[in-house]
Design goal:
The protein is about 40% helix and about 20% strand. It has about 280 residues and is α/β, with parallel strands linked by helices. It has two domains: about 170 residues, Spore Coat Polysaccharide Biosynthesis Protein SpsA, Chain A; about 100 residues, no CATH class. Strands 3-2-1-4-7-6-8-5 form an eight-stranded mixed sheet, with helices on both faces. A two-stranded antiparallel sheet has the order 9-10. Helix 6 packs antiparallel against helix 7.
Length: about 280
């Protein structure tokens, strides 16, 4: 048996699609925990076992730790309110054993999306038997923002929990145009770098430390490409280029070199033209 955790926070236009995808599962024997800060206008009687929990906080660490404590079942999977599950997602998870599981995804929105290797919450499932310390870890790291999915993965690596990265496309993932996020991009990257530095003190294993360093250098390159001051050197970039599982390796390298002083600002114009065409997760 599986518990599905669905947070609904100020997204009236999407959550019904998420719930429809759960109602249409081939396997209906699951518990549904809904954490919502808005009225949920949906016929929850479609589900055998659904609980609606009014939750005002937007801190993901809070509702995640709560769900991990009260879930009926040890197998727990998550669904963001703007994504959907493929109809066989629950039945697939029921049939397999896992500690940490992350599946691949389809694109829910039309367009020429860049298919990265990043983690997202709607693709994650965990077995609570191996994550007994995770609720406290989440509560000790409040303010995860959109990094809760990454935090759970790093927790699995830190505690040597068996991880399964599946190519099965069991989730439908929603994107939006990059230009809608551009105004906040610089502030978000600065905040993310600070959180990464905080996590580098929390996680101590060499593997997680290496991944965090990769992320800090990557974000610093993109921050520098916006014309901001960023502490990133060529040796940092050279180290990054030889690491495994680096998303958009060529884009990162080009972004770094286009910010070099000898280009006298022309590099920034090129980056902006490329950036205007990109799309990222909402």
């Amino acid at each position: 048996m599986i518990t599905v955790v669905l947070p609904i926070y100020n997204r009236e236009e999407y959550y019904k699609e998420a719930l429809d995808s759960l109602a249409n599962q081939t396997d209906h024997d699951f518990e549904l925990l809904i954490y919502a800060n808005i009225p949920v206008a949906y016929q929850l009687s479609k589900f055998k076992d659904a609980k609606l929990i009014q939750f005002e906080s937007n801190e993901r660490a809070h509702w995640m730790s709560s769900a991990l404590r009260i879930a009926k079942y040890d197998k727990i999977t998550f669904l963001d309110d703007d994504d959907t599950f493929e109809k066989n997602k629950i039945s697939y998870l029921e049939k397999i054993d896992f500690g940490y599981f992350h599946n691949d995804y389809n694109h829910l929105t039309p367009g020429n999306h860049i298919h990265g290797n990043g983690f997202n919450m709607s693709c994650i499932a965990i077995n609570r038997l191996y994550f007994q310390g995770l609720p406290n870890a989440l509560e000790n790291n409040v303010g995860l923002g959109n990094m809760n999915d990454t935090f759970v993965y790093w927790y699995a690596l830190e505690h040597h929990i068996d991880t399964t990265i599946s190519k099965e496309k069991l989730t439908n993932y929603r994107f939006r145009d990059y230009s809608t996020l551009r105004i906040n991009a610089i502030a978000n990257m600065k905040t993310q770098i600070e959180k990464l530095k905080m996590f580098s003190e929390y996680f101590t294993s060499k593997k997680v430390q290496r991944i965090i360093r990769q992320r800090i250098i990557q974000d610093s390159i993109y921050l520098k490409s916006y014309g901001e001051q960023a502490n990133v050197s060529f040796p940092d970039v050279a180290w990054l280029m030889v690491q495994e599982n680096v998303d958009n390796r060529i884009s990162l390298l080009i972004s770094y070199f286009l910010t070099m002083p000898l280009l006298k600002g022309h590099g920034m114009n090129i980056i902006q033209k490329i950036r205007n065409k990109k799309e990222v997760k909402q």
